[in-house]
Amino acid sequence: MLPPGNARHGEHLLRPVRSAEWERVRELRLAALRDPVASLAFVESYEEAEALPDSFWQERAEGGSEDRGTWIRQFVAEAPDGSWAGTATVLVERPEDGRAIFGEVTEAQATVVGVYVRPEARGAGLVDALLRVAAGWTWSQEPPLSRVRLFVHEENARAGAVYRRFGFAPTGGRADTLGSGAPRDLEYELRRPAGE
């Protein structure tokens, strides 16, 4: 039996990161920032992320870890050889906490960020599996959260199609997640299922 927050998808173990795994968190993020659509999907460049000190990556891993994190959880898809094939991060946002990464928070929700699957692992359903684990963790929060949202750049058709297939629906909301000066990122949401 797997611990809570863990799941299997084929050969991959889907699990939260641990605080000591900061070097692996850094490596996977840098790999994501080399992706051809990274400029549409991530708020930083490869060069910016590569220049960050080890202390940044240590804090990032700790904040999203199962052993030290509280309102953030980073999940990874771990292959049998221990390599990480993909990741997704969830941030809990509640109006009373005053934390929001993109715009005002008017209801208890979670925002998914940093979704990435390595090219060689694509097409095997890992994005859906990571989103299922992330949503499952979201629905387990107390007090309950009402929705999961994410933002997709209007030109990132690949990501938009993946999220719609999973069940995310466009809300009509927009944000400027990349700091371009224009709200070019479309908001999608997944509402809490009845009875969860």
Could you outline the blueprint of secondary structure elements for this entry?
Elements: E1 7-9, E2 12-16, H1 22-33, H2 38-41, H3 46-50, H4 54-63, E3 72-78, E4 84-93, E5 109-117, H5 126-139, E6 147-153, H6 157-166, E7 169-175, E8 185-191
Parallel strand pairs: 5-6
Antiparallel strand pairs: 1-2, 2-3, 3-4, 4-5, 6-8, 7-8
Helix pairs in contact: 1-4
Verbal overview:
By secondary structure, the protein is of the alpha+beta class. It has 6 helices and 8 strands; from the N terminus they run ββααααβββαβαββ. The chain has helices at 22-33, 38-41, 46-50, 54-63, 126-139, 157-166, and strands at 7-9, 12-16, 72-78, 84-93, 109-117, 147-153, 169-175, 185-191. Strands 1-2-3-4-5-6-8-7 form an 8-stranded mixed beta sheet, with helices on both faces. Helix 1 crosses helix 4 (54-63). The radius of gyration is 16 Å and the shape is globular.
Strand order of the largest sheet: 1-2-3-4-5-6-8-7
Radius of gyration: 16 Å
Helix fraction by DSSP (H/I, runs of at least 4): 25-40%
How far is the N terminus from the C terminus? 22 Å
Structure characteristics:
8 strands, eight-stranded mixed beta sheet, 196 residues, alpha+beta, 6 helices, 28% strand
